[in-house]
Amino acid sequence: MRTSLSQLLESHSVIVADGGMGTMLFALGLQRGSAPELWNVGHPDAVRSVHSRYIGAGAQIILTNTFGGSRIRLAIHGLEERMAEFNRAGAQLAGMEAEQAAHPVVVAGSIGPSGQMLTPFGDLEFEDAVQVFAEQAAALAEGGADVLWIETMSDLQEVHAAVEGCRQRAPQLPLVTTMTFDTHGRTMMGVKPEQAIKTLSDYGVIALGANCGNGPDELEAVIEKMHQTQPETVLVAKANAGMPRMEGDTPVYEATPDVMAEYALRVHKLGARIIGSCCGSTPDHIAAIASALKG
Length: 295
Ligand SMILES: [Zn+2]
Hints:
Blueprint: H1 5-11, E1 15-16, H2 22-27, H3 39-42, H4 44-57, E2 61-63, H5 71-75, H6 83-100, E3 106-111, H7 126-142, E4 147-153, H8 156-169, E5 175-179, H9 193-202, E6 207-211, H10 216-229, E7 235-239, E8 245-247, E9 250-252, H11 257-269, E10 272-277, H12 283-294
Helix pairs in contact: 4-6, 4-12, 6-7, 7-8, 9-10, 10-11, 11-12
């Protein structure tokens, strides 16, 4: 069955989110270097099966397979014309699995970074970025997303552009924003957790926090700083399944489900209320997280 994030937050002290989508799709045959969003149309059953397994593991929030679904990201694959189609389909697939779930599930429309730097560091103008995120937000809303989930961000300006875009074309949907603190406790663009929480909560998001990065330990330190800065804010923690180790050009993640269950308990104690995982995680990790948090 379907629910809203505000209802989940009212009725639960801690909420389980899902784990990595890319990790699962690669295991199902997605080739590295190709656009995962293409599978929303080409292999919808595969995408649905990933959602279904995360829900079965206990996830109460599932993220759509639309992380790289902005026109700019899709243009790398020559697929920019199909932006609306992929995002709509991604939200619809997650929605179908949420409807069938035995427990209430929220469909979060994933919006990742554009992959381009905004001015003055890069060429992307703020207004153009707003436009790009607005189009993606509109398609996700059309597909039925319950919340828009802006994730893996490094630059506060880009988050601002994404929030603006979402507000323009999907003003009815609540927003969640998470940043990636993978450079000595800061984002790649130098943003500290204390700065991030202040700026992001000024945008009126329903929850915010950290995802991806160098594994649970670094992410826990980020959540601790955020919670100390603003204890009343709803915090999201989605750590990768350990610190990635490169095997050739393939990142390998080795944290076991038990390790991720311990992370879930620790990060909850440090103040996170929405807890899931990111790259390298599977439904086994989420099942371990869910049962640890329930116990
Ligand atoms: Zn990740």
